[in-house]
Specification:
Elements lengths: L16 H4 L6 E2 L11 H13 L9 H15 L8 E4 L2 H12 L5 E6 L8 H4 L3 E6 L14 H7 L4 E7 L11 H14 L2 E5 L15 H4 L7 E5 L13 E4 L3 H11 L8 H13 L1 H22 L6 E2 L7 E5 L9 H9 L1 E2 L1 E2 L8 E5 L4 H15 L1
Parallel strand pairs: 1-11, 3-4, 3-5, 5-6, 6-7
Antiparallel strand pairs: 2-8, 7-8, 9-10, 10-13, 12-13
Helix pairs in contact: 2-10, 3-10, 4-9, 11-13
Keywords: Lyase, Pyridoxal phosphate
Family: Belongs to the class-II pyridoxal-phosphate-dependent aminotransferase family. MalY/PatB cystathionine beta-lyase subfamily.
EC number: 4.4.1.13
Length: 381
């Protein structure tokens, strides 16, 4: 393999949310932040830019817009226009910005749980009405999570204006199928909903499926969908804070852009360079990463098979595993028990709207993952 995904990197030498939240004897597998060195082409481009030595206000390069258009066409068969792109410092700010731009105080903002925790804070933080529906959980271990039409329809009220959607899904790793997205599209049209489709993990599909952006699958939705993309998860660039809102409808784009004014900081010149380089030159690195993630997912599956009371559906995408711990006897705070007794830090399902579950990040060197899994064996096997 031409890239090194095996060497463990000391991440405590610089401030790190992932590695400095817990004591030094804890192995952190919680936040969605990989432990791999980013693509060499990206680090080389950044080194050259840093050598320039001037870091004044930048501007969005046309070449970045063009590069993302090519990426979208090549990987997803979606021909986007450069003018559809609004670049900003991250997907989470974009979620909040969409709520402010597209809804009024008291409007309903709906999301489907379990879900990446910031989704659950958007309505409250922007003075809107929080609304949730639940996915249909698997009937048995190995079966997929599914969209529950009845639950979603029941959650929609006359006040509902905005749906925050995650595709592929974090934390379950589901790659939504066309028929499920068609159901979503029909509900959006019938109830006149706007949709923010967080497609952050679309470049990390593990099983040979093809991601199809929601707005591309249903062109009739283009006037009501904002698609969020970023290189942060795919290429491990989260700390460089750059993401893109793709908005085909001019009126919707204008509303979003007006809300950005004064609320969003100027673009990160290094983040924009990293994004362009990753999309232009990072494909071979991405393919190598996917192979490592498949190996790690299999290692996790082997361990879960010998953990009584633990069930899961192996993720079809992402480097995140959603584990049902409700039958382990560890209680509702299984995350706390695993932390205290196994010294492995996972994300608590409570934060995703589903107590009794944990999320495990397997985007780490295989030997490091095995160390954590063996610690968990000592408690769960």
């Amino acid at each position: 393999m031409p890239f090194d995904f095996a060497t463990s990197i000391d991440r405590r030498q610089y401030p790190s949310q992932k590695w400095q939240r817990y004591a030094e004897d804890v192995l952190p597998l919680w936040v969605a932040d990989m432990d791999f060195v980013s693509p060499p082409a990206v680090t080389e481009a950044l080194q050259a830019r840093v050598a320039h030595g001037v870091f004044g206000y930048g501007r969005l390069p046309d070449s970045l817009r063009t590069t993302l258009c090519r990426w979208s066409h090549h990987h997803y068969g979606w021909d986007i226009d450069p003018e559809w792109q609004l670049w900003l410092p991250g997907v989470v700010p974009a979620l909040h910005l969409a709520s402010l731009a597209l809804t009024e105080p008291g409007d309903g903002v709906l999301t489907v749980t379990p879900i990446y925790p910031p989704f659950l804070k958007v309505a409250e933080r922007t003075g809107r009405l929080p609304q949730t529906a639940q996915l249909a959980e698997p009937a048995s271990s190995g079966e997929p999570w599914r969209l529950d039409r009845d639950a979603l329809e029941a959650a929609i009220t006359p006040r509902t204006r905005l749906l925050l959607w995650c595709h592929p899904h974090n934390p379950t790793g589901r790659v939504w199928q066309h028929e499920e997205l068609a159901l979503l599209a029909e509900l959006a049209e019938r109830h006149d909903l706007l949709i923010v489709s967080d497609e952050l993990h679309c470049d990390l599909i593990l099983d040979g499926q093809t991601h199809r952006p929601l707005a591309a699958s249903f062109p009739e939705l283009a006037r009501r969908v904002i698609t969020l993309w970023a290189p942060s998860k795919t290429f491990n660039l989260a700390g460089l804070t750059s993401a893109c809102a793709i908005i085909p409808d001019a009126a919707l784009r204008r509303r979003f852009q007006q809300a950005m004014s004064g609320l969003m900081p100027d673009l990160n010149v290094l983040g924009l360079l990293a994004a362009e380089t990753a999309y232009a030159q990072g494909e071979s690195w991405r393919q190598a990463l996917l192979e490592v993630l498949r190996i790690n997912r299999q290692a996790l599956d082997d361990h879960v098979a010998r953990w009584p009371g633990v069930s899961w559906c192996a993720p079809e995408s992402t480097y995140l595993a959603w584990l049902d711990m409700r039958q382990t006897g560890l209680g509702e705070s299984s995350q706390g028990a695993l932390l205290e007794r196994a010294r492995v830090a996972l994300s608590d399902g409570v934060d995703f709207g589903w107590p009794g579950f944990v999320r495990l990040n397997f985007g780490t060197p295989t030997a490091q993952l095995e160390d954590a899994l063996q610690r968990l064996d000592g408690l769960l096997a």
